[in-house]
Amino acid sequence: MQYLADVTVELKSGMLDPEGNTIKRALGHLGYETNDVKTAKKFTIDLDAESFDDARQNVDEMCQKLIANPIIHNYTIDLREA
Amino acid sequence: MQYLADVTVELKSGMLDPEGNTIKRALGHLGYETNDVKTAKKFTIDLDAESFDDARQNVDEMCQKLIANPIIHNYTIDLREA
Question: Any idea which UniProt keywords this protein has (chains A, B) (predicted)?
Answer without folding.
Answer: ATP-binding, Cytoplasm, Ligase, Nucleotide-binding, Purine biosynthesis
